[in-house]
Design a protein that fits this description.
The structure holds two protein chains of two kinds. Chain A is an alpha+beta fold. Chain A contains three helices and five strands. In chain A, β2 and β3 (76-82) form a beta hairpin. The termini of chain A are far apart. By secondary structure, chain B is an alpha/beta fold. Chain B has a single domain (8-115), classed as STAS domain (Transcription Regulator spoIIAA, 2-Layer Sandwich). In chain B, the strands form two sheets. Chain B has a five-stranded mixed sheet. Chain B has a two-stranded parallel sheet with strand order 3-5. Classes of the chains: A alpha+beta, B alpha/beta. At the A-B interface, α1, α2 and α3 of A face α2, α3 and α4 of B.
């Protein structure tokens, strides 16, 4: 019953295509009975991650692609998103909740991903992101 | 991209403007752009300064949408007006709380409370 399914999809730098992949992954969670709150969090994290890859990574370049690999079963969903951009130093992203940044419009995507996912990991380059949500992840609202 | 159809339902209550989001998901870049422009236009073109944003339809919103709301808040403050958010469902409220934007925005449970003392 709990066999892990694996997928590998490459999409152009187009957020509409990104959303199709997002729907596929989220649909897989729904059909496996994931809690609505987990589905909400993963959808939000995927939206942020895919938009980042397409807009900030590939800079919407039509010649560049985004590769999305994921595996899913009843216990976890793990998604690896890789763009063909130059990457970025993760430590350079300012904390949007700092008092002086609170009213600045950008910089909240990564923070939301970290909050909703069990694992958020960038490779050294910053162009490959691994997101994982585990159902046994306690809902630790600090 | 053209102006697109209205993404906000606008109602008046005295001198307060109630703008209700039409969309369930405020995610798409183009859509967020249109929503932003329609919001800003309330202040910049129509000269409205007391505005309540009703989120009762909204089930998802991304950080790009939060960015527009922050810019809207600045514009309303610059116009010496008031901006309140209301009827934000718990999932979405969590997004505001994580990003500490619940401290920046005046958020009320429902429309009645949002209109009180506006």
């Amino acid at each position: 019953m709990s066999s892990t399914e694996e997928f590998d999809v490459t999409i152009p730098s187009d957020t509409a295509k990104g959303r199709e992949v997002q729907e596929q992954i989220v649909g897989g969670m729904e059909s496996r009975g994931y809690a609505p709150r987990d589905v909400f969090g993963v959808r939000l994290a995927l939206e942020e991650a895919l938009v980042n890859a397409i807009k900030h990574g590939n800079k919407m370049d039509p010649d560049k692609v985004v590769n999305v690999k994921w595996e899913i079963d009843e216990e976890h969903v793990r998604v690896v998103i890789e763009d063909q951009g130059e990457g970025f130093p993760i430590e350079d992203v300012p904390d949007p909740t700092d008092e002086e940044n609170l009213d600045k419009p950008g910089g909240r995507g990564i923070m939301l991903m970290r909050s909703f996912m069990s694992v958020v990991e960038y490779n050294e380059n910053g162009n490959r992101l691994t997101l994982e949500k585990r159902t046994d992840d306690e809902d630790d609202d600090d | 991209m053209s102006a697109g159809h209205r993404r906000l339902d606008i109602e008046e209550s005295g001198d307060v403007t109630i703008a209700k989001f039409v969309d369930k998901k405020i995610l798409d870049e183009g859509n967020i752009q249109i929503i932003g422009n329609q919001l800003f236009s309330l202040v910049e073109d129509d000269g409205r300064s007391k505005i309540v944003l009703d989120f009762s339809n909204v089930e998802y919103l991304s950080s790009a949408a939060l960015g527009k709301l922050i810019t809207m808040d600045k514009k309303v403050k610059a116009a010496k007006g008031k901006l309140r958010l209301c009827t934000v469902r718990p999932d979405i409220y969590e997004v505001f709380a994580i990003t500490k934007l619940n401290k920046l925005f005046d958020m009320r449970d429902n429309l009645e409370q949002a209109l009180e003392g506006m």
